[in-house]
Amino acid sequence: MRKHLDMTPPRPYLMRMTRSAKSVGFGLAFVALTAVAGCAPRPPVGCVIDLPGGIGGPFSLIDESGKAVTQADFLGRPALLYFGFTFCPDVCPFSLQSAKLALDSMGPKGRSVQPVLISLDPERDTPQVLAHYVLSDGFPTGLRGLTGTQKQVAEAAKTYKVGWGKTGAGPDYQIEHTSFFFVLDRKGHTRALYSSDLDPESAGACMDAALR
């Protein structure tokens, strides 16, 4: 269990992804989305709001209690989604700690947002593992952890255009993945995305702008 994590920020990090044509395509798509959303009212640099369709949608997964859940279980309040994994050595825990600071910076509005971690490593991230991980010091209050079968996880990642892939062999393999937060409104629509290396104050401003 990772407790009392060092809050020293890692070196600038925009994306972790496999070196494949698909991953490169995702990066180009992000640049295109930034251009489309450039006219949005005062979003901080690195925040993409008023996204075109095609990012987000239905998913079917399992939560940290072992219960089957879908996107419908998160309707009624805004949500902040992040795709990562519990064995991630640096980017994922730092990103989740930053998310807590971003939500705290929003005051009462931040407390209305449901933070969610969707694991890209269902082989190791069982509901029991996630149940402990989401309670790690410095993570957002009320963080939910979702996992599932390989197929369920792959479909959820595809729905949010997340690039990811397994690297290495043996029990210490890693998951290379894009590192973005997705801001969902009360109806489950994706209203914004931002890179996990965005500073907490700007991330909070991004969520605020997206959820007006």
- Strand percentage: 15-25%
Looking across the biggest beta sheet, what order are the strands in?
Answer: 1-10-9-4-5-6-2-3
What's the helix-strand series?
A: HEEEEHHEHEHEEEEH
CATH architecture: 3-Layer(aba) Sandwich
* Beta strands, count: 10
Shape: globular
Low-confidence stretches: 1-40
Distance between the termini: 37 Å
Number of helices: 6
Topology:
Blueprint: H1 21-36, E1 47-49, E2 60-63, E3 68-70, E4 79-84, H2 91-105, H3 108-111, E5 114-119, H4 127-133, E6 144-147, H5 150-159, E7 164-167, E8 174-177, E9 180-184, E10 190-195, H6 200-210
Parallel strand pairs: 4-5, 5-6
Antiparallel strand pairs: 1-10, 2-3, 2-6, 4-9, 7-8, 9-10
Summarize the structure in words.
- With 212 residues, the chain is α+β, with helices and mostly antiparallel strands.
- It has one domain (21-210): Glutaredoxin.
- It is built from six helices and ten strands.
- An eight-stranded mixed sheet has the order 1-10-9-4-5-6-2-3. A two-stranded antiparallel sheet has the order 7-8.
- A hairpin with a 6-residue loop joins β7 and β8 (174-177).
- It is globular and about 45 Å long.
- The N and C termini lie far apart (37 Å).
Entry summary:
This protein is globular.
Which key phrases capture this entry?
6 helices, alpha+beta, Glutaredoxin, about 210 residues, disordered N terminus, eight-stranded mixed β-sheet, about 20% strand
